[in-house]
Design goal:
The complex is a heterodimer.
Chain A: H1 2-12, E1 23-31, E2 42-45, E3 50-53, E4 59-65, E5 69-75, E6 82-87, E7 92-98, E8 124-127, H2 129-134, H3 140-144, E9 150-155, E10 159-164, E11 172-176, E12 179-180, E13 201-205, E14 220-225, E15 234-244, E16 249-259, E17 264-275, E18 290-302, E19 306-320, H4 330-338, E20 356-372, E21 376-392, E22 405-421, E23 426-441, E24 453-468, E25 473-493, H5 494-499, H6 502-505, E26 518-521, E27 524-539, E28 544-555, H7 559-563, E29 565-568, E30 573-576, E31 584-596, E32 600-625, E33 628-652, E34 657-670, E35 675-676, E36 684-693, E37 699-708, E38 719-723, E39 728-732, E40 741-753, E41 759-767, E42 791-799
Parallel strand pairs in A: 1-7, 11-14, 30-33
Antiparallel strand pairs in A: 1-4, 2-3, 2-5, 5-6, 8-13, 9-10, 11-12, 13-14, 15-16, 15-42, 16-17, 17-18, 18-19, 19-20, 20-21, 21-22, 22-23, 23-24, 24-25, 25-26, 25-27, 27-28, 28-31, 29-30, 31-32, 32-33, 33-34, 34-35, 34-36, 36-37, 37-40, 38-39, 40-41, 41-42
Chain B: H1 2-20, E1 39-46, E2 53-58, E3 69-72, E4 81-90, E5 97-98, H2 99-105, E6 110-116, E7 122-126, E8 139-144, E9 148-158, E10 173-184
Antiparallel strand pairs in B: 1-2, 1-4, 2-3, 4-5, 4-8, 6-9, 7-8, 9-10
Classes of the chains: A mainly beta, B mainly beta.
């Protein structure tokens, strides 16, 4: 460690060579738009490595310059860094104009630097503010679906879980405004608890290489951010009202920001979204409505060398679950699968009845940063999250209105990051995280706990270094280590405990006491998770860049994978976890070739991901109970390999016409069993033609085609079930994926200026134009119902 | 620097508050499932005297890995009409809870179905109904024909579509599905 600091100090030293030169460049740095003087802008003479800051009057002066051409880099927080070539033959006076990029600013954190790159050797995919605004009524998962290589695991159309390069749930980390979301992401029917209207942009990194966030993002990281508030006296806001015919609902969202020149600011945001039953082309999807509300409040002080922010947000969603999907055992499943349309169809209604979910997520956070000269920026974050999840099933008798699952997950997170520019070509990021999490499962539900009470402690630290060798080559290396301690109290059914032989393997953890036909155990588990990344970026020329990245990631099993034991009612199946699981480890290599030119640009991103002890849940057995047969889904660990490629391209014909193409495919293989992995997204391609015209009020028209191929690689998980009517056992085809399908959608937008400071945008769209009947392999309701039919949407946005 | 002091102070307060609100390591209470049905007993009493036949299924660990135990007390007599009644119990509670009452109270949300495999010469008729006049089926009449054998399945559906033409279009959710080997001799 001492050696390390020594190196650090050495790297900081600037060796200046004495010269016999006496020319000076002096001048001022101003804001291009409002001509205000910029204080503390950094002027760097690249050749001599001289660095000066502008004074409180925005003035600077660099002396001892020779008679030659110099490259001057001008940098200021909140502005785009600019470089100038200046020929020095005598003393020169210059005015540097920098542009504030307020709309595009992608900063979450309050510190300087305009666009923060999360990983320098991995392709980053972004969803812009415009795309978010246009999809105001959609969920996070729906919006992310537009990125190549990102699909979704759906429970109907309102519970949408992002799936990155074939992986989901705990393998996809969602960093919401600097904090990792702790919203019980383990379940396939637990969607991220985020309102996209509270966000300004989203970045997706398809891998674990951004170690500053997490070391266990085997699938990838979704980073959601809000725009930084400008340092000037201002009051602005926007309101978006959207409506859609399918579901006969809409959303309204509004936000208002007040900022001061002194750096103080405050922002308030709120949204509400309400839909009734959605419909498939031929019938109503009973009980699929959704009611979502969110509100957030932030305020703080934003200065050049330090700042802080306090933030609170509340997200609440009630989601109906298709009534026809609520089934008893396998017999019901067979009847539902064989029925040409859902066995329960009622007329449209807004009211959400059982089965349904009622989820609430609170975030309270406090952030601060401080810049130290010649040392770097120190960031501090504390966050508290509370996630309350209620799930209601169709129940009998007194329990009718009681939830059958009631979980409360509290998480405290502390993050300390140091970001230091060691030289003009290298940067070092160091950080520490600590987390305490506690889960409480309320026994008042009268249903055995699916997830037990537990306490979890996590500590991690990381270091990431990137260095620019020359203008063409950059490398990045990093390492991270996480320690997790999990202390749970879990009731097992004695019959299960013994059938698994746990009574001999785990006899030490049994808690004394008489609990009828159950055993109480107290597992205390330790997990040590190292992760690392290494990558290079090579720029062949202005047009072509190659990115190579290797990431080692490891992930401790989540509570669901460890402790599940019993009937998961909302999935009408019995789920078994395994107490003996250890961490899964992934080695992912990804390569990206990027081409960018005026008329044509593309990225090709092939990758391979080897995952050891990959935890997968699949149908394993059929169990006979007094309630009939139940499918048993069991978690198991296996060695897996995922290979795939994501391709994007854009052809710009002229100022008006543009073509976008996307293709992605992933092949998942269970190496241990030499079989396909279950629930891998099918290959898909998206192709769009876009017309834009700035002269006609920014008119934007887009026609998009989405083609999803049939998944032809899947494990055979068909099962035999006793059919009383026939008096025989029959094989149920539970595994064959649905056919390929093609959907067409149209989207448009036009802007109107209302007055000096406000503008109105109107958007109209149609999805599934031909009302095509289709089913998606990754929608859990595909057995029971067609997917959504045609939908007309309207979107009004006012900026003020 | 002043702000930093403020932040530190705020943070300490938060941490202190949270530290206090922690739940202690109290032993959690076990959940005894209230809705579970562990036992179904069908009593078939012959009209005009004879041996009463008891069909019983018991699954004490519910959806745990142990299989249900099914028993039939004796064979049925050919050409006989039996009065059938069904009793449902939750035996994880002590004393056992009678679930039949609950089902009969919510008669419009429940229905029993009797599925007879081909070969078994038996016909059934519902003898109790819900408030809409649709069948409930906790009581029924069973008529045996000639000497034969086969399977008889009792299915209790929760929230089926009522009225329906049979189990295949009834939807709903299975609360009980249990099959007995029946001999008519």
């Amino acid at each position: 460690m001492r050696l390390f600091f020594l190196i650090l100090v050495m790297l900081y030293c600037n060796f200046t060579v004495a010269q016999n030169c006496n020319n000076t460049i002096s001048g001022t740095v101003i804001d291009l738009h409002d001509r205000t003087l910029l204080v503390d802008a950094k002027i760097t003479v690249l050749e001599t490595k001289q660095v000066v800051l502008t004074s409180s009057e925005g003035k600077f002066s660099v002396s001892n310059l020779c008679k030659q051409t110099y490259t001057i880099e001008v940098y200021h927080a909140f502005c785009e860094t600019k470089t100038y070539k200046i020929e020095v033959s005598k003393d020169v006076e210059k005015v540097f104009r920098l542009e504030h990029h307020l709309e595009e600013l992608n900063e979450i954190i309050l510190k300087g630097k305009n666009i923060k790159v999360k990983s320098k050797t991995m392709l980053e995919n972004k969803i812009s503010k415009q795309d978010l605004e246009r999809n105001s009524v959609k969920s996070l998962g729906d919006v992310l679906n537009n990125i190549s290589g990102v699909a979704s695991l759906n429970t109907g159309n309102t519970i949408v879980k992002p799936l990155i390069n074939g992986l989901h749930s705990s393998r996809v980390v969602v960093m919401n405004d600097g904090l990792r979301m702790e919203d019980q992401d383990w379940g396939s029917e637990h969607a991220p608890n985020i309102d996209i209207n509270a966000l300004d942009n989203i970045t997706v990194i398809k891998g674990a290489s951004a170690l500053q966030y997490s070391g266990n993002a085997i699938g990838g990281i979704i980073i959601t951010e809000t725009t930084k508030v400008p340092v000037k006296d201002s009051l602005y806001g926007k309101t978006i009202v959207s409506g859609a015919t399918n579901g006969r609902g809409g959303a309204i969202t509004s936000q208002l920001t007040k900022s001061y020149k002194s750096g103080w600011y405050g922002k308030i945001q709120g949204s509400a979204k309400r839909f009734g039953d959605f419909n498939a082309p031929d019938y109503n999807l009973s009980n699929t409505g959704v009611f979502e509300r969110s509100a957030s409040l932030r305020g703080g002080l934003n200065q050049f060398s330090s700042g802080w922010e306090a933030y609170y947000s509340l997200y609440k969603v009630e989601t109906g679950i298709l009534r026809a999907s609520h089934l008893g055992g396998a017999g019901d499943q067979v009847r539902a699968i064989n029925s040409p349309q859902p066995l329960f169809i009622e007329n449209f209604k807004y009211n959400i009845g059982a089965p349904n979910q009622d989820v609430e997520h609170h975030i309270a956070s406090l952030k601060g940063f401080k810049k130290f000269n010649n040392f770097g920026t120190l960031d501090f974050k504390y966050g508290f999250q509370q996630n309350k999840r209620l799930e209601f099933d169709i129940r009998r008798g007194d329990a009718k209105d009681e939830a059958s699952l009631d979980l409360k997950l509290n998480t405290h997170t502390l993050i300390l990051d140091l970001d230091s520019k060691m030289s003009s070509t290298s940067k070092l990021k160091l950080g520490l995280t600590g987390q305490y999490q506690t889960n409480f499962a309320d026994p008042a539900t009268g249903v055995r706990r699916l997830i037990p009470d537990y306490d979890k402690y996590n500590a991690g630290f990381y270091a990431v270094l990137d260095k620019k060798i020359n203008n063409q080559l950059l490398y990045e290396i990093g390492a991270r280590f996480d320690y997790t301690y999990l202390n749970a109290l879990k009731f097992y059914r004695t019959s299960f405990w013994e059938s698994r032989n746990y009574d001999t393997i785990f006899q030490d953890i049994v808690v004394e006491g008489d609990f009828g036909n159950q055993v109480l155990v107290n597992p205390k588990l330790n997990f040590y998770n190292p992760s690392a990344t290494a990558g290079v970026t090579y720029k062949f020329n202005e047009d072509y860049t190659l990115l190579f990245n290797y990431a080692l990631a490891s992930r401790a099993p989540n509570p669901s994978e460890l402790f599940s034991e019993g009937l998961h009612h909302s999935a009408s199946r019995i789920e078994y976890g395994d107490l003996r699981f250890n961490s899964e480890t992934a080695n992912k290599i990804s390569l990206t070739l990027q081409h960018e030119s005026k008329n044509f640009s593309f990225t090709i991103n092939p990758y391979v991901n080897f995952i050891n002890r990959f935890i997968v849940i699949e149908p394993a057995d059929v169990l006979q109970t007094i309630r009939g047969n139940f499918q048993v889904w069991e978690y198991r660990q296996t060695n897996a390999r995922l290979v795939g490629v994501d391709i994007n391209s854009t052809i710009t014909l002229n100022n008006h016409f543009q073509f976008n193409h996307q293709f992605s495919i992933v092949k998942g293989k269970d190496l241990t069993r030499d079989d396909a992995l279950i629930n891998m997204p099918a290959a898909s391609t998206k192709n769009a033609i876009i017309y834009k015209n700035k002269k006609i009020n920014n008119l934007y028209l887009r026609l998009q085609s989405d083609y999803v191929f049939e998944q032809n690689e899947f494990p055979n998980t068909n099962f035999e079930v006793f059919i009383p009517e026939a008096g025989t056992r029959e094989i149920v085809d539970f595994s064959t994926p649905p056919n390929a399908y093609h959907l067409l959608s149209f989207d448009s937008n036009i802007d109107f200026k209302l007055n000096e400071t406000s503008s109105l945008s109107i958007g109209l769209g149609i999805t599934n134009i031909f009302n095509t009947k289709y089913r998606n392999y990754l929608n859990r309701f595909r057995y029971y119902t067609d997917d959504l039919g045609r939908d007309y949407t309207i979107n009004l946005k006012i900026n003020y | 620097m002043k702000n930093f002091k403020l932040i530190t102070l705020a943070l300490m307060t938060l941490l202190t508050f949270n530290a206090c609100s922690d739940d202690d390591d109290a032993t959690p209470t076990p959940v005894n499932e209230e809705e579970i049905i562990t036992t179904l007993t069908v009593t078939l009493t012959p009209n005009g005297g004879g041996t009463t036949v008891i069909l019983k299924t018991q699954d004490l660990d519910g959806d745990g890995p142990n299989l249900p135990i099914t028993t039939v007390s004796s064979n049925l007599t050919p050409g006989t009409t039996y009065v059938g009644s069904i009793e449902l119990l939750n035996e994880t509670e002590d004393p056992a809870e009678d679930i039949t009452e609950e089902v009969e109270d919510e008669s419009d949300e429940h229905q029993f179905f009797y599925t007879i495999s081909s070969g078994l010469d038996v016909t059934t008729t519902y003898t109790n109904f819900d408030s809409n006049g649709d069948p409930l089926g906790t009581t029924f009449e069973l008529e045996t024909g000639a000497i034969s054998s086969g399977l008889m399945t009792f299915t209790l559906l929760h929230e089926p579509t009522k009225p329906n033409t049979g189990i295949s279009d009834a939807g709903g959710e299975t609360d009980i599905e249990t099959t007995f080997d029946i001999f008519i001799q």
